Amino acid sequence: MIMDSKQSTVKEQTIFGHIGNNFQTEDRKINIIARLEEPLIVILGNVLSDEECDELITLSKDKMQRSKVGAEHEVNEIRTSSGMFFQKNENDIIIKVEKRVSSIMNIPIEHGDGIQILKYTPGQEYKAHVDFFSPTSKSAKNNRISTLVMYLNDVEQGGETFFPKLNFSVSPQKGMAVYFEYFYNDKNVNDLTLHSGAPVIAGEKWVATQWMRRQKL
Ligand SMILES: O=C(O)CCC(=O)C(=O)O
Ligand SMILES: [Fe+2]
Predict the structure, then answer these.
(1) CATH number of the domain to which 156 belongs
(2) Where is the Fe2OG dioxygenase domain (predicted)?
(3) What atom in ligand 1 is closest to the CA of residue 129?
């Protein structure tokens, strides 16, 4: 635990350990654009190249299905986007991106759900939710601890990632990402990571999401 002298409160240890204005992964220099300290939310630049974004869209385009929600994988109005999962190590670009994401998130890729691609067309959204499973769910035994949402295209209008309890919104920008974690001892801090994908108003929105678990999957 780290004492935060300004607020004289005790700040909990975080998973994401990068400091400064940028940091280096094996093959790319990632920019830290902005951060909120608790819960830790970090806006990252230069996570994916334009070519990588385009390739992820091309590879997933024909495999998109109406998104399912929760442990039971039900079709639900909470998420009207379509989506697909890549298998871990599925192909060269997935291997490269998974390595980078693991280094950004500071968690071995073995702890990851496969990378998920979501596509939203105008009117489609992902209503407010948390990414961790409720304690009563089977999946909570190896619960999620952190998320990286990577934006694969520029959205004409709408489609922000919005954190309603923090009144904080992130505009999607091609190649950038938002990172957040919810592995705090204080349940109230985890609950503050409630977020939504706001309705797209014009254009399409494509994202790639990596969720990490507490243990290997
Ligand atoms: O589309 C977004 O901005 C958010 C996506 C999201 O919340 C998720 O994939 O868990
Ligand atoms: Fe989410």
Answers:
(1) 2.60.120.620
(2) 111-214
(3) 7
